[in-house]
């Protein structure tokens, strides 16, 4: 008797031994945290290290690594060309400044994500006087781009709070 759960159909049991090693060196890669590459375009005040990029693993569309900023330090103003960037704060308190004169600011804590669109001039600041700022950084290309800028920052930037455009409070739209 055959029914909807009949499992008598045949499976192709051809020899797939040549596929056995197919993904061995071109599949998943684990890059140990103590083997990151410090030879990446840098910006004064920060220590960037690459984990995932084109040169290391053949990544075509992503770059990932770490960034460390010592206590009470800040980077120079810069942007990342056509790339989108995501920063995930692991430890410490990040203060971001951005805009043509770094006139906007926002802070991020451990567990927070920061999104930086293409060509946006910005600066990362360690907002703590005694704790290192440690972040994970992801970019939208396998090549690193960092263009350092000579910007005269405004003295008092405007704080900008994020408003979730998807889950906006209905009372705000009235």
UniProtKB/TrEMBL annotation:
<feature type="domain" description="Cupin type-2">
    <location>
        <begin position="66"/>
        <end position="133"/>
    </location>
</feature>
<feature type="region of interest" description="Disordered">
    <location>
        <begin position="1"/>
        <end position="24"/>
    </location>
</feature>
<dbReference type="InterPro" id="IPR014710">
    <property type="entry name" value="RmlC-like_jellyroll"/>
</dbReference>
<dbReference type="InterPro" id="IPR011051">
    <property type="entry name" value="RmlC_Cupin_sf"/>
</dbReference>
<protein>
    <submittedName>
        <fullName>Uncharacterized protein, RmlC-like cupin domain</fullName>
    </submittedName>
</protein>
<dbReference type="Pfam" id="PF07883">
    <property type="entry name" value="Cupin_2"/>
</dbReference>
<dbReference type="InterPro" id="IPR052535">
    <property type="entry name" value="Bacilysin_H2HPP_isomerase"/>
</dbReference>
<dbReference type="InterPro" id="IPR013096">
    <property type="entry name" value="Cupin_2"/>
</dbReference>
């Amino acid at each position: 008797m055959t029914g909807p759960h009949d499992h008598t159909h045949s499976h192709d049991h051809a020899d797939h031994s040549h596929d056995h090693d197919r993904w061995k060196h071109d599949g998943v890669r684990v890059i140990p945290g103590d083997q990151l590459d410090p030879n990446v375009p840098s910006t004064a005040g920060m220590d960037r290290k690459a984990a995932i990029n084109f040169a290391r693993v053949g990544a075509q569309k992503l770059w990932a690594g770490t960034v460390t900023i010592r206590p009470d330090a800040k980077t120079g103003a810069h942007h990342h060309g056509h790339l989108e960037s995501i920063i995930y704060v692991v430890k410490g308190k990040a203060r971001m400044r951005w805009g043509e004169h770094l006139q906007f600011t926002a802070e991020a804590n451990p567990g927070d994500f920061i999104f930086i669109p293409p060509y946006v001039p910005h600066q990362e600041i360690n907002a703590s006087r005694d704790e290192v700022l440690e972040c994970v950084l992801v970019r939208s290309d396998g090549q690193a781009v960092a263009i350092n800028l000579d910007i005269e920052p405004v003295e008092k930037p405007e704080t900008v709070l994020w408003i979730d455009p998807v889950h906006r409070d209905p009372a705000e739209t009235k």
